[in-house]
Each structure stands twice: as structure tokens, then as C-alpha cells.
Design a protein that fits this description.
Layout lengths: L1 H6 L5 H56 L3 H12 L6 E6 L4 E6 L5 H13 L3 E7 L2 E11 L5 E10 H53 L13 H73 L6 H28 L7 E4 H19 L2 E5 L6 E4 L1 H18 L3 E8 L5 E7 L29 H11 L3 E6 L6 E7 L5
Parallel strand pairs: 7-9
Antiparallel strand pairs: 1-2, 1-5, 3-4, 4-5, 6-8, 9-10, 10-12, 11-12
Helix pairs in contact: 2-3, 2-5, 6-7, 8-9, 9-10
Length: 490
């Protein structure tokens, strides 16, 4: 981990720019400056030598005339005038034998210089060379002097200090390297500042956005601006975050759906076991109840029964009837049709259901109304099962109602058939809207409910691919049951 942390600065874009751009520029620039300086040094050195050469050639004519006239004073004045130029360290005139006849300057030539001068007189060529003069390194330029007949009669030597040439070259070198260092410093600042403006601040903002997302702010999105490359990265980051949100939402939905399906499968297994058990119990209870009801009817026909006995026998018959109703509910709950579905006129089926519960409504003073009928309301299914389910829905509403029950039949916007049953009773609490479809869960026990009616309704709805929704009636204020079925395709 420490190794990775140590390598992070080496991977920064700023350092990469310095190593891959500035450093190569510095190397090549230094090489260019050095090569340029070498060329300039040679050029300047030649120029400085050329100046001495021009001075020597300029002095040559007046010195030759003075030698022809044998006027040493004129020769001295000419040399003194040359010495006053400022760039000349010394000027010397030698005769044909190499003897010094005139001197201008601080350094005096010694015997070795005079021997060298005699040799150059014999050669008779202009030449320049570096040498030592009185212990000082100098550059000397020699010009032969000729007489009227063209014969060499002497030698003119003009001297310039080598240190002066070196000093001039050193000045040029220092200035060159200072200028190059200044250029590299300015270039480095431009690159670093440009990196900050063009890349650094946008990358920092992008990193801040990532840090916010990492800290838990999943709704944060990076700003898509700046250079095209950075904006592309920010846009890709936002798309990735959107995709992760969609994936998280889909996973959450799948988990909820899986839990719902697991609960539903468990309920189906329980219902299947309960159905098997209920079918067996109902079959076993049928015969004893028939015997009890028959014996009770025969006892009621006997003479001499007291009023109390008659009431007790009637109560026995009512309990037997209620038990038979429960058995019928159990048999219906355990029943599973295996026949093919057939067309069902839902309007006629609903009217038959309402006709069956109307006596109960009249006895309790409840208004039962049918609304929104449609002559073409046809579905595919099993008529007996649908009738029993609708009968349970309407009877459940009648038992809960205080004064009014409304049944609405029609189509929705998607072409499906919708049956709505509403009442003005107390309604179903939100926390009970799923549990009321569980077997034996009922809020109407005081009214003789078995707790299987709505369980049968949901079973029939699932058999027909329908859905059941429980809500609040806006018109009546009580409960609102909505069964939605697929219309039959002709």
C-alpha cells in the first residue's frame, strides 16, 4: 500500500508533462544552445581576430611610408594612435633583420619574440597566432612591410589580449545560458499554469464528484463541461451512475417481486393443503349433517312439543344450515375446474348475482344498485366459478354496508372488463387490505361470515387471469373492490 502511495505522485499528469514535454525540450534546447554557442563562439572569435587584422592592415600603409622616409617618430606616432583605439594591447614594428624599431603598449617583446619576427620577415606572409607576450596570453597578427621596390623591409605586429577575447566570449556564454534558463522557466510556468486551467481544475472537480458519490450521495452527477475529453469522462461517469441506479432499482424490484412470489407460493402451498383437508372434512361431515337435519324435521312434526322445544329444534336446523353453508364454502374453496373455459355474459351473470342477494338487502333496508352496464361485456371462463366469486364480493359488501351498495360494470381504457363493488360501510383498514384474502380471516364474524369468501374470490380471479384491488370508495365512503378481467376476443 505504501508502495502504491509512493508511486501516485509519479503518475500525475503534471509530472508526466514535465518529464515527457518539458524535460525533452530542455535537453534538446540545451543541446541547441550549446551548439549555437559553439558556432557563435567561433564567429565572435573570428570577428575579434578580424578586428586586429583590420587594425594591422590599416596601420600598414602609414608605417610603410614612414619607414621609406626613415622617420621613426612618425612610425611611433602611428603606433601610439593605434594603441589609443582601446582594443589593441600592443603594436610593434621590426626591421628586415627582426630588430625592434618601434613599440606601443605595456608589454615589450623579448628575444624569443624578436627571433620569431625575423623568421616571419623571411616568410613574408600575413598570419595570426596565439602566443605568450611578457607572460600574457595574446593573439598577434603579423603584416609584412614592403618598400618602394616591393621588397620586404620590416614587420608590423598588432597584439590583442587573449583574455579580452575570452572575457567577451564568457559574457556571451553567460547571457546565452541566462536567456535559455529564463525561457525554460517561463515555459515551465506556462505549462503548469496551462495544465491547471485546461486540465487540473476539471479533473479535481471530477474527483470531488466521485468522492461525493463514494460517500453515499447517489443522486449527485458530475458537471459535463471543460475540455472535450474531460467532459466525455464526466458524461460517461454520469451514464455509469444512471445505469447503477437503474440496476439497483431493478434489483430492488426483483427482490420485492421474488419475496412476493415466495409468499404467494407459500400461500398457494398452504391453500392446497387446506383445500385437500377441507375437501376431506366436508365430505365426512355431509352425511352426519343430513341425518341430523332429517331427524330434526321429524321431531318438529311430532305433536305435543312445547314452545321451548320447537325453538331449540329450529335453532338446531339453523346451525345445521350454517354448517352446510360452511361445508359448501369449503368444497368451493377446494374445487378446481378442469373443463375448458367458455364465453360468459358478465352482465347477465351480475344481474343473476344481484337477484340472489336482493332479498337479504330488502330485509336489512340496504339499497342495491347496478350502474354502468354494457351489452357487450363478455369474458372467457367458468360461469359457476365467476358467479360464486361475484356473489361473495357483493355479499361481503352487503354485510359491511349501512344503507347503500353499488355495483358498476364496464370497460376500462385498455379494453378490459371491470367489475366494481362499493359500499358505505366502515371500509377496510390499509394494513388489512392484503390479509382479508387469507382463508378464515374475516371482519364479519359477528354477521355469520366464514372467512373463506374473499379467499375464494382471489382463487377464482387467479384462475381467470384477473386482478383484485381493494381501496376506498370516493362516492360512498366505504370499501371499494375492483375485479379486472380480460375481455373475450372474438
Amino acid at each position: 500500500m505504501a508502495h502504491v502511495t509512493l508511486l501516485k505522485p509519479l503518475r500525475s499528469l503534471r509530472l508526466q508533462l514535465i518529464l515527457l514535454v518539458i524535460l525533452p525540450l530542455a535537453v534538446f534546447g540545451t543541446l541547441a544552445v550549446w551548439l549555437t554557442y559553439e558556432g557563435v563562439e567561433t564567429l565572435i572569435e573570428r570577428r575579434l581576430q578580424k578586428e586586429i587584422e583590420l587594425v594591422a592592415r590599416t596601420l600598414r600603409v602609414p608605417v610603410e611610408q614612414a619607414m621609406q622616409e626613415r622617420d621613426r617618430q612618425d612610425i611611433q606616432r602611428t603606433l601610439d594612435a593605434a594603441f589609443e583605439i582601446g582594443r589593441v594591447y600592443g603594436a610593434y614594428v621590426y626591421d628586415a633583420d627582426g630588430r625592434r624599431i618601434a613599440v606601443a603598449g605595456e608589454a615589450w617583446p623579448g628575444p624569443r619574440e624578436q627571433i620569431e619576427a625575423a623568421e616571419l620577415v623571411q616568410i613574408g606572409e600575413e598570419t595570426g597566432r596565439y602566443a605568450q607576450l611578457a607572460g600574457e596570453p595574446v593573439f598577434s597578427y603579423f603584416v609584412p612591410l614592403t618598400g618602394a621596390t616591393g621588397r620586404i623591409v620590416g614587420l608590423l605586429q598588432v597584439v590583442r589580449l587573449e583574455s579580452e577575447i575570452a572575457r567577451r566570449l564568457d559574457q556571451i556564454q553567460v547571457r546565452s545560458w541566462l536567456a535559455w534558463a529564463t525561457v525554460m522557466g517561463v515555459l515551465l510556468l506556462i505549462v503548469l499554469f496551462g495544465h491547471r486551467l485546461a486540465v487540473g481544475r476539471h479533473v479535481e472537480r471530477l474527483v470531488d464528484s466521485m468522492a461525493l458519490v463514494e460517500s453515499g450521495d447517489r443522486s449527485h452527477r458530475a458537471r459535463v463541461d471543460g475540455p472535450v475529453e474531460i467532459a466525455s469522462v464526466a458524461a460517461a461517469l454520469n451514464r455509469m451512475l444512471d445505469g447503477l441506479d437503474r440496476m439497483a432499482g431493478e434489483l430492488s424490484r426483483q427482490r420485492r417481486e421474488r419475496r412476493r412470489m415466495e409468499r404467494r407460493m407459500l400461500e398457494q402451498e398452504n391453500l392446497a393443503r387446506l383445500g385437500q383437508f377441507s375437501s376431506g372434512v366436508a365430505h365426512e361431515l355431509g352425511s352426519p349433517l343430513t341425518v341430523i337435519d332429517g331427524d330434526t324435521r321429524r321431531l318438529q312434526r311430532e305433536d305435543g312439543l312445547s314452545d321451548d322445544s320447537i325453538r331449540r329444534l329450529e335453532r338446531i336446523r339453523r346451525q345445521v344450515a350454517r354448517t352446510r353453508e360452511l361445508i359448501n364454502q369449503l368444497m368451493e374453496f377446494a374445487r378446481s375446474d378442469r373443463s375448458d373455459p367458455e364465453p360468459v355474459d358478465l352482465q347477465r351473470l351480475v344481474q343473476r348475482v344481484l337477484a340472489g342477494v336482493r332479498p337479504e338487502c330488502e330485509s336489512r333496508g340496504i339499497e342495491l344498485r347496478l350502474a354502468g352496464t354494457d351489452a357487450s361485456v363478455t369474458v372467457s371462463g367458468w360461469p359457476a366459478r365467476l358467479e360464486h366469486a361475484l356473489l361473495n364480493l357483493v355479499r361481503n359488501a352487503v354485510q359491511a354496508a349501512e344503507r347503500r351498495v353499488c355495483v358498476t360494470l364496464g370497460h376500462d381504457g385498455d379494453g378490459r372488463v371491470v367489475v366494481t363493488v362499493e359500499d358505505d360501510g366502515p371500509g377496510v383498514p390499509p394494513d388489512q387490505r392484503e390479509r382479508i384474502f387469507e382463508p378464515f380471516h374475516t371482519a364479519g364474524k359477528g354477521q355469520g361470515g366464514t372467512g373463506l369468501g374473499l379467499a375464494i374470490v382471489r382463487g377464482v380471479a387467479e384462475e381467470h387471469g384477473a386482478s383484485i384491488e381493494v381501496g376506498v370508495s370516493e362516492a360512498l365512503g366505504g370499501s371499494r373492490m375492483v375485479m379486472t378481467l380480460q375481455a373475450r376476443k372474438e
